[in-house]
Amino acid sequence: MVVSAGRGPETPGAPVNAPIPLASTYRSGGELSYGREGNAAWSALEEVLGALEGGTALAFSSGMGAIAAVLESLPVGAIVVLPADAYTGTRTFLADLALRERLSHRLVDTTDVAATLAACDGAALLWLESPSNPMMAISDLALLSRQARVVSPEIVVVADNTFATPVLQRPLELGVDIVVHSVTKYLAGHSDVIIGATVTRDPRWVSALSGRRSMHGAIPGPLETYLALRGLRTLDVRMQRAQANAGEIARRLRAHSTVEVVRYPGLADHPGHALAMRQMSGAGAMLSFDVRGGAEAADRCCAAVRLAVPATSLGGVETLIERRGRWVGEEALPAALCRLSVGIEDVEDLWADLDQALGHAAEQVGQPSPDRLVG
Ligand SMILES: *Cc1c(COP(=O)(O)O)cnc(C)c1O
């Protein structure tokens, strides 16, 4: 499906790939009239992503564009329940909406089912993210979706499926109403575009979200959409390789003398391991670990990598590493936590690099940590 869907007409002589229509307007009398309403390049990406998640997909200018479209569809005063460790952008956006008295929100630990359901009382929307970023916590999407509706029959359940991707987890099949994606990450997979998407089976949400996309102008560029689809074609093989690498790196990091904790749902002693193995078809390629020696040691480790890239973001073919606590808004995280987005490099090359970088971390000649970054 990831390879064959969204290819356009199967007539002799037709191009194998969907076209990239570079047009802001269309001749009158057809299905499309203006470029903000639709584009054949979007449709191709949406067809593939919709088939993968099992719903109707809409492409947006970015993951945040998709997230904003969902949240801006709620009536003024609505209550949103979301994980305390949800994606920073989502938390910041909701804090801003709360400040302007548009929406209010309740931060919960969504691995705690009772606490989450209690918070859902009177709420309009339950936001879920599993695995979470960067604590790698696993929340029960099926149980929470089902029970939240018992507490609040009209509640809308949304899952940010960026970390898992539909190759490993299909939230709509687990009872979630809307899936959001930062397509920027694994789906596009090459750290070269910013793009987002929503997927839902509910026709009312399809029309609400596509209307919001047009009104907000949160539309992807046709070239970016093409690149995202080109990347998406190899999602399955990239994920298999990155996940195998991540499993091996997680085991080796755990045995390393300069590493204190490794959070990877594929490890048998991860608190969400059993649930992850039920809910997902694999543990994915994201992990986090705490470097022994605190923030300065972690910074030395990130600065010393040569094959991996010290950078934020995730989901590309190349391994990315960063100390998350360097960001404003991430003060609650362990200071020495490094997030690793494991790529598709040769695992021995990758390990040799991480091992030498951890060697630098262990050296006691520390420099002070830089000021926090505003993201
Ligand atoms: C990056 C990210 C987003 C935001 O997506 P953009 O494409 O950067 O706008 C949302 N959720 C998660 C989990 C992410 O990692």
Q: In words, what does this structure look like?
A:
With 375 residues, this protein is α/β, with parallel strands linked by helices. Helix content is 37%, strand content 15%. It is built from twelve helices and twelve strands. It has helices at residues 40-53, 63-71, 88-99, 113-120, 141-151, 165-168, 203-216, 222-232, 235-254, 273-279, 294-304, 347-362; strands spanning 56-60, 79-83, 104-108, 125-129, 156-160, 178-182, 196-200, 259-263, 286-291, 309-310, 320-323, 337-341. Strands 1-7-6-5-4-2-3 form a seven-stranded mixed beta sheet, with helices on both faces. The protein has a five-stranded mixed beta sheet with strand order 8-9-12-11-10. The longest helix has 20 residues, at 235-254. It is globular, with a radius of gyration of 21 Å. It starts with 39 loop residues before the first helix and ends in a 13-residue tail after the last helix. The structure holds pyridoxal-5'-phosphate. Pyridoxal-5'-phosphate binds next to α2.
Global mean pLDDT: 95
Following the backbone from N to C, one meets helices and strands in this order, namely HEHEHEHEHEHEEHHHEHEHEEEH
Number of helices: 12
Ligands bound to this protein structure: pyridoxal-5'-phosphate
Beta strand %: 15-25%
Low-confidence stretches: none
Sheet with the most strands: spatial strand order: 1-7-6-5-4-2-3
What separation lies between the terminal Cα atoms?
36 Å
Residues in helices, as a percent range? 25-40%
Radius of gyration: 21 Å
The main β sheet shows up as: 7 strands, mixed
Tertiary shape = globular
Would you tell me the structural class of the helices and strands? alpha/beta
Number of strands: 12
